[in-house]
Amino acid sequence: MSTRIMASILAVATAVPAFAEGELNLYSSRHYDTDERLYSDFTALTGITVNRIEGKADELIARMQAEGANSPADILLTVDTSRLTRAKEAGVLQAVQSDVLEARIPAYLQDDDNQWFGFSQRARIFFYAKDRVENPPADYVSLADPAYKGMVCHRSSSNVYSQTLLSAVIENHGVEAATEWAQGVVDNFARDPQGGDTDQLRGLVSGECDISISNTYYFARALRRDVSGLDSEAMANIGWVFPAQNGEGAHMNLSGGGVAAYAPNYDNAVAFMEYLASDQAQQYFSAGNDEYPAVPGVGLSPSVAALGLFKPDDVDLSAVAGNLSEAQAIFNQVGWE
After folding, report:
1. How far is the C-alpha of 270 from the C-alpha of 209, rounded, in Å?
2. Given this model, what pLDDT does residue 161 score?
């Protein structure tokens, strides 16, 4: 029996993806069923089989660390700059040199050392109850205005979206201003931070709050299909604002990935990364999961396009990631639970 066949048998027996020329072992914390189309299309185009292990980002990163040089992982896909940075700092990614990725992914959506690349984005914007709010805030700084006291719903400080937003405020406005902003937002909370982004939108419908912050794809998804608590009548009363259009632009959350530090199928991993930057895959990020493509000029799905045009914040996300520890210190200081 050949060494390769034996390795495949052992891999199947232990539920670990096999090492083989025509395979790709993907560790993913993207929990969207619609991503299946990305994987099947890649296989149809290349003949490379995608073996997928899904889990929470921190669990996958810890697993890759424990596996070390014996890890079967070729790719890590996850959501948010903070988690991509966590993977880099954990030493589970490696630098990638790809002319395709360099040409197609904007520089500010790449790690400075090319260890991760962004493939889709979500704008983190204001939503408000149109029947109760006449003048919603126009920028992130204004959310801390005492005029909005008792009106704001937001997620907890332990959530990566909260952490990255505050990190961006630090990068754009400085530590002192960011601290004042965080304190002002806490003072304006309508309730203690709780739930996910969809829960922030439901808070508008229930009347618990008048203004909330959410990533756009949660709202666009509700425009496209039924979501519990967000029927068509409720959605009609929710307005939205892309913040800071006369300033830095709307804050963008990133979904992206990198090649694993010990990828056994390195060439296949790079091919997959380059595929995710293709027009075909980029269009599917929008059509399948209501996200914004990372590659400029790619068309949007109707549900995403319905939100309108806006100016995104093009701050360097590697620089934003460098502020994460400072952001957590500020959260602790102002009592943002």
Report:
1. 45
2. 92
Helices (H) and strands (E) counted in the chain, each on its own, are: 15, 9
By DSSP bridging, strand 49-54 and strand 117-129 are unpaired
The answer regarding whether domain 122-251+316-334 maps to CATH 3.40.190.10 reads yes
pLDDT tens for each residue of 133-169: 999 999 999 999 999 999 999 999 999 999 999 999 9
Backbone angles phi, psi at 313, to 5 degrees: -75, 120
* Architecture of the structural domain at 3-121+253-300: 3-Layer(aba) Sandwich (3.40)
Q: Same fold for the domain at 3-121+253-300 and the one at 122-251+316-334?
A: yes
Assigned token pair, 78 = 């996850």
The gap from C-alpha 205 to its chain's centroid, in whole angstroms, comes to: 25
Domain range list for the chain? 3-121+253-300, 122-251+316-334
**Distance between CA 299 and CA 293 in Å, rounded?**
8
